[in-house]
C-alpha cells in the first residue's frame, strides 16, 4: 500500500476530520513553521532545534530547518520568522488564584515596585486618580485597587482614610491588601458598606454559594464560562475539600481530569495552615515575633486537628484523584506526612499525584520524605524577593535563607514546580524565574545562595515539571511531536542572558493550540 492510499484510508476512517494535508502523509504539511531564533524544547534528548512545525494545533515536528522545511512546508504553510527571539513551551502556572484574579481585572494595580506604582501613599492616590480620570468613572461608582503592601511604605507612614477622602470625596474607594485579607477604605466606602466604629470584626471567612443551593458558586461559574467558549487558555480547577461532596454531586469523578471547553477538574485542594508572613503558618518552633494577636511562644496552628487532616487526605486518596495540599510551615509539612502515613499505610511510596503547594519552610531533613512518599513540592521563590525581610524578622536568618529549597530538592531527584500564587504575587513568569535563579530580596540581600538553581532548571519548574504536576506531561510542557502547540515567544533567551537580566525579558507572544492569543503591542 502506498502512502497516498493509506492517507486516503486514514482520512476516511477519521470521518473527514483529517484535512486534505494528509495527502503528504507521513510527513504532513505544516500550518506553521517557526524558525529564525532559538527554540528551547525542554526535552533533554534534543534540547534545542532550528525549526518547529505545527499542524492542527499540535506540534508536527522539530529539528533542523532544512529538514523541517523540506518535509513539512507546503504552499499554504506560514513560515514565522522569530527574528532572533526565543521560542519555548508555554508557561504553566503550578498554582494561582484564577478565580480571584478575574475580580481584579477591572481594578487598579497598586503593587509595590517593580510590579506596580505603590511605593508610598501619594503614588497610590495618584494612580487611583489617573484611573478615575482616564476611565471617566462617574460619581458614586466604586473604585477598587489591589496589591497594597504596607511593608514598603516609607517611615511606616501607611495609606489611610484621609489620604483617600481628599482625592475621592464622591467615590467609594477600596484599596485591597496584597495578602488578599484586608483593605483600606475611604469614608464613602465605609458609608456604602455600613461599617462604623460599632461594627464587630466578623469571625472567619465566608463561602459564596449559588442562591438556593449548596453548590459552590465558583466552580459553577467557571463551568458556565467554559460552556460559553470563554477560555482562551486551559484552566485546571482544584475544588476545596470542604466543597468536595457538593462538587461530586454535580461532577462525578469519572469526568475529572478531562478538559471540557478548556476547563478540567484536576483534583482536590486541602489547606492545612496559613501564611508565614501573616504568622499563621504552623511551625515546630515559635515565631520570634509572637503571634498576630500578640500571643507568646506562638507556633501558628493547623487549620484543622490532625485527625481531621488525616481523614481529609484519606478521602482524596480513596477517590484516587490528585491532591494539592497547602502547607507552609515545617510543622504543617510534618502534619501532612503524618496524615499520609495514616492514609497510605502499607503502601507509602505509591505515586498518588500529591503536590505540596508552597512547601516554603521545608526542613532539610523533610526533603527525603518528599522523595520517599513521591510528593512533588511546588515552591514559591517569589518570596525570596517580596517577603524575605518579613521572614527574617519572624523566623530568623537560618530558616529564611532556606525558604523554597529548590537546589536541594532537585539534587535529591525531585521535580519541583514554581508558582506565582497570583494575585498574592504578580503574574510575571520571567520575574518568577529570576527569583529562582538569583534569590535576591527587595532590599537587595541574597537569600540562600546555596539554593539557587540554573535558568534551565527554573524553566523546567514552569514547563515540563508543571505539566507533570497537573498530569499533562504527555501533551504539554516540552516541544515534542504530538504535544500541543502551546508556545511562548520571549524577546531574549533566558539561557543566554546574564542571570540578573532574566527579569527584564519580555513575553513577546503566546500561542495556544497553534493560535496566537497575545502579541506584544498588537
Ligand atoms: Zn495560593
Strand content: 15-25%
Q: Roughly how much helix do the residues carry, as a percent range?
A: 25-40%
Average pLDDT, rounded to a whole number, is 90
State the end-to-end CA separation. 48 Å
Assembly classification: single chain
SSE-based structural type: alpha/beta
How many β-strand stretches? 19
Name the ligand types: zinc ion
Choose one word for the global shape: globular
Helix count, per DSSP?
18
Task: Give an account of the 3D structure.
- This protein is of the alpha/beta class and 522 residues long.
- It has helices at 3-13, 65-72, 98-103, 121-134, 161-167, 187-192, 217-227, 244-250, 306-319, 330-343, 367-372, 383-386, 388-395, 397-401, 406-411, 429-438, 455-460, 464-469, and strands spanning 32-40, 48-55, 58-63, 78-81, 86-89, 108-109, 143-148, 173-177, 183-185, 235-237, 263-265, 268-271, 323-327, 354-358, 375-379, 417-418, 487-490, 507-512, 515-519.
- The protein has 18 helices and 19 strands.
- β18 and β19 (515-519) form a beta hairpin.
- The longest helix has 14 residues, at 121-134.
- The radius of gyration is 25 Å and the shape is globular.
- The protein starts with a helix and ends with a strand.
- Zinc ion binds at residues 95, 97, 421.
Question: What's the short version?
Answer:
With 522 residues, the protein is an alpha/beta fold. It has helices at residues 3-13, 65-72, 98-103, 121-134, 161-167, 187-192, 217-227, 244-250, 306-319, 330-343, 367-372, 383-386, 388-395, 397-401, 406-411, 429-438, 455-460, 464-469; strands at residues 32-40, 48-55, 58-63, 78-81, 86-89, 108-109, 143-148, 173-177, 183-185, 235-237, 263-265, 268-271, 323-327, 354-358, 375-379, 417-418, 487-490, 507-512, 515-519. The strands form 4 sheets. Strands 1, 2, 3, 4, 5, 17, 18 and 19 form an 8-stranded mixed β-sheet that branches. The chain has a 5-stranded parallel β-sheet with strand order 12-13-14-15-16.
